[in-house]
Amino acid sequence: MVVERKGKHSESGSWMARWLACNPAFVLWFLVSGLVCGALVVLLLAMQVGGGGASIARAQGTTVSGAACGSVAIAGAECVSRPIILTARQREILAKKTALAQEFRRVLAGKLPMAAFQHAARQLARQFGWPAPQFSVSPFSCTDTCPPTSASLNVVQQPQTTNYYCGPATVAEILKEKGITHSQGYLAGSSFLNTSSVTGTSWNPHVVPNTLNTILNTTFHVPLSGSGTGASTPITTSIFESDLTADISTGWPLAGNVYEPKNGLHLPGHRSNQDIWHWIAIKGYINSGANTTYADSVYGATSVGWYQSVTSPYYTISSSDMATLANNMGLVW
Q1: Among 113, 197, 318, 322, which residue carries the largest CB count within 10 Å?
Q2: What is the pLDDT of residue 30?
Q3: pTM higher than 0.85 for the full model?
Q4: The domain made up of 88-332 is a member of CATH 3.90.70.10
Q5: Are residues 124 and 93 in contact, defined by beta-carbon separation less than 8 angstroms?
Q6: How far is CA 312 from CA 27, 91, 159, 184, 290, in A?
Q7: Residue 200: which of 69, 35, 13 has the closest Cα?
Q8: Cβ of 96: how many Cβ atoms within 10 Å?
């Protein structure tokens, strides 16, 4: 019986083979149809996955686009290639630092005693294991009747050693202020900033705050994205002044990632006929935060063709202008 069944199947298979041999057009049609259908299924699945990713990015107020790498004068540019997403811990720290910064604005306005702000700053530092705030930062020493309307940290400018090392120079300056010395080349390596001649030092992924936090063994530094990188809330003058004065007054320099658009607002000495992406170390403020002081790594940097146009290692500009430039990219504070 088994042999008989095999024989029947064999006869059927022979018939099918003969029919297919006589109908090559059908065979070709069948194969092509299968390939087309398979490709359509793969395409639809890819669209579903891609659409979901884009929807998630939009829901979180993020972006997947950014500065075009190729139009960089000071390579400090970055190509945003993925959504800018903060961890839950970073969001918590950002919210609490923002609340503390707003308290300091009340101190400057004479609406809150300096002692109350100092107490809140110490509590926040203890909560997250940060070093104790440095309230006696030069050039002021304040009491309740002496709010720090001006402050400056000991950030020492370093010329960037290549035309795209503004990021490593900025991080080296900030670390040096904290008593830690690393070369720009060391910081530029793949273990930290991963700086390259093509993309400079990226805004996203957030290599600058991650590097500072890793080397300083803290979680203090958080990235604040500007509208230019897709953030739903812009870095306004008010927000920038709050973050600036709170950080400087407690002994923390900031890192600004600025974009200077061709024929638009530029930092002093920078060529206005060029698009420029640049990192700077922000070291102080005056007039209760209305003006910002920063170190520019282009000064003395012979690797930058127009470095002689930057005639000072330090500049002070209006905080409204600095907020505009930082809003094009972001701020690490």
Answers
A1: 322
A2: 58
A3: no
A4: yes
A5: no
A6: 78, 37, 11, 20, 21
A7: 69
A8: 15
User: Which sequence spans correspond to the domains of the chain?
Assistant: 2-59, 88-332
Average pLDDT, the chain: 81
| pLDDT computed for residue 135 by the predictor | 84
Q: Residue 330 class from Cβ within 10 Å (0-12 exposed, 13-18 middle, 19+ buried)?
A: buried
CA–CA separation, 45 and 311 (whole Å) = 57
Read off the pLDDT of residues 197-230 as tens digits, 9 standing for 90 and up.
999 999 988 999 999 999 999 999 999 999 999 8
Query: Per residue in 93-148, pLDDT tens?
Result: 999 999 999 999 999 998 998 889 999 999 999 999 999 999 854 444 555 556 78
